[in-house]
Amino acid sequence: MDPAPNTEIRMLGFLHSARKAKGLSPKAHLYIPPEGRVAQDIAEELELPMDKIEGVFINHLVYSLDHVVHAGDGVAFIFSFSVSH
To answer: For every residue of the chain, which 3-state class applies, written as one string?
Structure first.
C-alpha cells in the first residue's frame, strides 16, 4: 500500500493550462518521504514540460529544480516565458 499524499503541488500559468488541456488537475497531491525529493524528479513524475519550467516556488521562495522539496512544503512550478521587445 502506498503512503498517503502529504504535499500539494500546484502548476501555474501555462503549466496550469497544459494540465487542464490533458484533462488533468492543475494540482497534484503526492507523498514526499522524510528525506524529501528533488523538485525536478517531481516535475518529471507529473510529466511537466521541462523546457517550460523556470523554477519552483517552495514556501513562497523561488528555487531551481535541483532544490529538495520536503513533506508539507507549499510547492508551485513556474512557467518560463520570454518577452519580446
So the answer is: CCCCCCEEEEECCHHHHHHHHCCCCCEEEECCCCCCEEHHHHHHHCCCCHHHEEEEEECCEEECCCCEECCCCCEEEEECCCCCC
CA distances from 70 to 21, 55, 61 (A): 29, 16, 14
Going along the chain from its start, the domains and CATH numbers come out as 29-85 (3.10.20)
pLDDT, position 58: 95
Give the distance from CA 77 to its chain's centroid: 4
- R_g of the chain, CA atoms, integer Å: 13
pTM comes to 0.84
